[in-house]
Amino acid sequence: MDVTIRPAHAGDEEAIARFTADTFEWGDYVSDMFPIWLASEDGIVLVATDSDDCAIAVGRGQMMSGTESWLQGTRVSPQWRRQGVASALTAGLVEWARARGARVARLLTEEWNEPARHQVAKSGFKQTSTWVVGVRTIGASEPTTSGNGGQRARARRKLELAHSSEAIPAWVSWTSGPLVRPARGLHADGWRWSELTSEHLAQAGKHGSLWSSQAGWVVTRRDDEALYVEWLECGPDDINDMMRSVVDLAFESRAEILRIIVPEVDWMVAALERAGFEPNRMLIYEMAL
Fold it and tell me: Can you give the residue ranges of every domain in the chain?
């Protein structure tokens, strides 16, 4: 295999856009993110190149804290797959993270993506947790099989913006609650995962993304069309009302789509389905460095 692993540069953008154009049915996000990743100071983008120094694979590594790294966006040109290119690229990203003090590297893959799961396992990663991404449209009038028939039942307890002073109570509740173990202590942050600290929640409070009700707390993120719930603290007795509260929040914020990211727990998945969400399973893999 005549392949070289090196840091990416702007001249690789065209080749990367070409071989990632049809990664999924909807395309891919990697080519759009590539220039942003290059400009970031807390990560690296590596490419594998052929004998002509043309990029044939790409992947990104980022430090999430002083000891945690996150790997993402690994893509290989179709004609170079199953030749060890992805493993070589992953090894380069792991070495980059180790050199910066990371003690763990993590990544995410979809449950259905058997080739990716096989490749990361071959590279030494082990699956450590399973997450569910619940997706539903907001304001849709059509009935759902397990939902409420399209009639939006409002929550009894409305979510209100929480001050950063609630970070400690929220964190203490979560660390002693039923979700911390299946989450392995992690939380989602823009499709990256890292260990949750009270400082993360304090920052969410300062930025207006920490919400609370008597049912619990959530941390949200908003893009052009969707509202994301990236962290949720709640127990099984209150989860149905929490789901209604989150749907109300999305409706009031005029989001078209609501996505909730939670660790896989039976009562949580059942609540998502009752609230009209379509659950999709995602797998977190880790490697100790």
Answer: 4-102, 131-288
